[in-house]
Amino acid sequence: MTWISRASLHGGIMHSSNFIDLTNQRFTRLLVLGLAGKDKYGQLLWLAACDCGNRTIVRGSSLRQGSTRSCRCLIRDVLKARVTKHGHARAGHLSPEFKTWDAMIYRCGNLNNPRYGGRGLKVCPRWRKSFSAFLEDMGERPSPKHKYSIHRVRNNRGYSKSNCIWATSAVQNRHQSTTKLTEAKANAIRTRYAAGGVLQRELALEYGVAIMTVSDIVRGATWAPETLATPIPKKPSTSVSVTAFESATKKVG
Among 69, 88, 105, where does a domain finish? Predict the structure, then answer.
C-alpha cells in the first residue's frame, strides 16, 4: 500500500476532475474519516470508523458499490444470527424478515441507489446494528399468505420504529395517492382507535393521512364528533363590564 502525503492530497489527487471526496460520508456501518493511501493497483484507500468501534481501510470503489459495508462485523453478526434462538437466519434458510432487514441496510448504505442511500435515507442506529432489535420492534410479518413488506409511513424519513410498519402493496399504493379526508373517515378513525388494538401510524397508513392528523382526530382537536362540534353555551359572565360600571356609578352619583 502506498501512503499519500498531505502535499499530494492538496496538490494533485483532491483537485483531480474525477476525484470523489468520501470524507464524512456514511456507508451502512462505516463512516469515512479520510484518505489513507493507494493500493498496488492505484485504487484510492479510505480510513473508516465502524459502528462497532473498529477502524478499517477500504477501497473507495467498494464503498460506493456497497460491497463493503462494515469492518466485517456485519458478516459476523449475520453468522451469529444463524445460531440464535430467533431462527430467522438458519444455515440454508433466511426468513423474509431477515431478508428485509439485510436489503434495507444495503440499499440505504449504497449511495449509488438514487431512491435510498443516494437521497440520504438512513436506517436508525438500533436497527443498523442488530437484526434482533429490528425483529423486536417490527415483529414478524402479519401473515405469510399475503405479500407484506416494510413500509415507511413518511416517505421522506428513514427506517425506524416510529416510521415503519408491515403493509401489503395495495395499502402502500393507497397511501401514496392523495386522500381527501371526509367526516365519515374521521369518524371511522376515531371509532377504530377507541376500540383498541390499532396504532395511530397504522390508521394513518390505512386512510392515507398524516400521523398528526390521526392524533388530532382521536384527541378531538379536529374533525370533532357532533357532540363536541356543537358549541357549548357559555356560562353567564360574573365580571362587570366597564360600561356597566360607569353607568352604575353615574346613577349613584
Answer: 69
Reported pTM? 0.46
- The answer on 137 and 56 residing in a single domain is no
> Is 58 found in the same domain as 87?
no
The three cell numbers of residue 101 are 432487514
* Nearest CA-CA partner of 133 in 79, 182, 97, 180: 97
Label residues 139-161 b or e (16+ Cβ within 10 Å = b).
eebeeeeeebebbbbeeeebbee
Half-sphere exposure at residue 190, Cβ-oriented, CA atoms within 13 angstroms:
18
When divided into structural domains, the chain yields a total of 3
**pLDDT averaged per 10 residues in sequence order, the chain, 253 residues:** 49 62 87 90 91 89 83 72 56 79 86 82 90 90 78 88 86 60 85 84 75 83 56 42 48 50
For residue 232, count other CB atoms closer than 10 A to its CB. 6
